[in-house]
Every structure is written in C-alpha cells, then in structure tokens.
Write a structure and sequence with these properties.
This protein has 346 residues and is of the alpha/beta class. It contains 14 helices and nine strands.
C-alpha cells in the first residue's frame, strides 16, 4: 500500500502535463501512487499520460466519458486512493524533487496537522519568481482563513486522508474556490501548517484558471465559505465583519471600526502588533475586507489611517489599494453624474 496518493485532474494540458508527471516520477520519496483523471481532453493529453502509465505501474490513468469538473474528479480520486496522505498537484505545476519526503516526514511527526502547505515559485513567461509566505505561525494561518485567505497554493496541499474521511470532508461544488473551501473545513478539525521550504513551482499564464477567474466570482464563493467557517467561532462577535462580507459598510463609524475588529480578532488568535511591529497578516486581512466595500474613498482613508498599511513589505498592496480606490471612485463619479446624483465625501 502506498503512503502517498498524488491526485490530478486534467483537461487539455498537452503542453505541460509531461513536465508535471516527470516531477512526480523524480521524487526522492518513491512510495506513492499517482491518480490522474482526464476530464475529456480533446488534445494530446491522453496520449502523453498513457505513455507514462504504461511504463510505471504507480501511475493510474482514468478518462471520463463526460466532463465532470475538477471538484468531482478530485473527490473520485480521493475515494479510490490507497495512501494515508493526499498530495494535490495541478496539471500544469511542478514538484521540487524533495517535496514528498519533506512533507511526509513533517506529517509523521505532527499528528495534529491535517493539512500541510509550503512556499512556491511562480513560473511565468519563462522566468521564475520566488514567493514568500505571509504567515509565520499556525495561529496566523487560522486568523487569515477567516478573511478568505489561504497562505499556500492548491498544488502544495498535503492532506491527512483520515481527517477527511472521519469528518466527511470533501471538495464542495465550487467553481473557483474549491481549494479554499477544503482548506477552511480542515481548519475546523485540526491544524494547518505552512512550511518555509519551497517545494512547488506554480505556473501562471493567460489561459489558466487563475487568470480567467474574475475576482468578483471568486469573492462571492469565498464569502459563502467564510460565513460557514465562522459558525465554529460563535464566542466572537463577527457582526460587523459579516456585514462587511456583503459590501454593506457605509458609514464613517463602520469603516473606522474595521481596523479595530481586525486587531481584536488577531489578539484572540494570539497575534499582536505591539512594540511597533506591523503584522503583515493583519495588513492583508484589512486590505481584503476593504476591497469588498463599495465606498472606495472611505476604504482608502480607513486603510491609510489604520496604522497597518505602512510596512515596506506591503508597498505593492498599498499602491494596489490606492489604484483600486481611485479608479473605482472615478467610475462612481461618472456613473452618478450621468444619473444626476451627488457623491458623498469622507
């Protein structure tokens, strides 16, 4: 019986699937099975996968007769898997050779951890970009999850399968946030830890899901998942936050309270920004909440005045917030002028 079951859902990925399969074969930890479900690809994906499956018995190839979608395919792969651990890998991403060994050894020594992530490298236009994690502790991972943020990519997921089976956790029927849905559910039954090791290469290009998915569609799904996740924390007053999830923050006092809420919830999670240290998790949490709101000028001033924005590590997000608010405000002004409506100023 293999220790690790690697699962991949494939659809028309002839350009990259060979590199993905090779990265699994080259792992220094060899006790694995690789379940690949082909969702009716019309390109050469089938031919490429079959070539490797015929020469390595650890590779299990299944081809759907009809398109079923990624979540269904991943659940099918998990249900037929034999390993104690599930390693996720998208059809265009690459594992660093030591990935399985490092993640396996950590999970074997940390029985309370149900999901393990890692750092990653972005592959784009033939270049590599190293990414760093926001989180430094498991408390910060749990804190950020309430704001729709997972600090590791889907292809880095290394899951304790027993936690899924015992708690009836599956990939839910989400089009854009199925990874965050699983991530948040697993957080309710155990620890999620993000390794400092860089173990995955994540491919970004114009045709992949991440690039095509609009932020609004993903936010809509994430909001539903967040509200479900917050049901486990009834002892905390999330009323202002639940209102912010709907984009219903309007008054100056409500905006001013958002940074207070972020700091308060962070403290309850064991996170603080005392002694002048500005925790990047708190900055990013506030940044995300404010992006959901309709009052762009209120949002910009709240972010600037919060005391959480002035961190050199966050200079890009500071500029993104400014650009977002200015462009949104311009659009609102033009819309309101056309309707003969006056805008409210901060």
């Amino acid at each position: 019986m293999p220790e690790i079951s690697v699962i991949t859902s494939v659809y028309n990925c002839e350009e990259y699937i060979e590199d993905t399969i090779k990265s699994v074969i080259k792992q220094t930890f060899s006790d694995w099975e690789y379940i690949i479900i082909d969702d009716c690809s019309s390109d050469r994906s089938k031919e490429i996968i079959e070539k490797y499956a015929s020469s390595d018995s650890r590779i299990i190839y299944i081809r759907n007769s009809t398109n079923k979608g990624q979540s269904t395919n991943l659940n099918t792969a998990i249900s037929m898997s034999k390993g104690r651990y599930i390693a996720r890998l998208d059809h265009d991403d690459i594992c660093i050779p030591d990935r399985f060994r490092i993640q396996y050894e950590y999970m074997e020594n940390h029985s309370n951890t149900v999901l393990l992530g890692c750092r990653h490298i972005i592959l784009k236009d033939g270049k590599e970009y190293w990414c760093t994690n926001l989180t430094r502790s498991d408390d910060e991972v749990r804190f950020l999850a309430a704001f729709g943020i997972q600090d590791t990519i889907h292809s880095a997921f290394f899951i304790r399968k027993s936690a899924m089976i015992e708690n009836k956790i599956l990939y839910r029927d989400f089009d854009y946030a199925e990874d965050y849905g699983l991530y948040s559910e697993l957080l309710t039954v155990g620890d999620v830890h993000i390794l400092e090791d860089t173990l995955v290469k994540y491919r970004v290009f114009d045709g992949n899901t991440t690039s095509k998915t609009t932020k609004e569609l993903k936010y809509n799904e994430s909001r539903k998942i967040i509200l479900k996740y917050l049901e486990c924390y009834k002892h905390i007053d999330f009323s202002i936050f639940e209102k912010s999830l709907k984009g219903d923050i309007h008054t100056k006092s409500e905006y001013q309270y958002l940074p207070i809420f972020v700091r308060s919830y962070a403290k309850q999670c064991g996170i603080d920004d005392a002694d002048g240290y500005r925790n990047p998790c708190m900055s990013f949490a506030l940044y995300n909440v404010l992006l959901w709101q309709k009052g762009c000028i209120y949002a910009l001033f709240t972010y600037i005045r919060s005391g959480l924005a002035y961190d050199l590590k966050f200079v890009n997000y500071n500029l993104k917030m400014l650009k977002h608010c200015v462009l949104k405000e311009r659009k609102l002004i033009l819309t309101h002028r056309g309707k003969g409506i006056l805008t409210t100023r901060y």
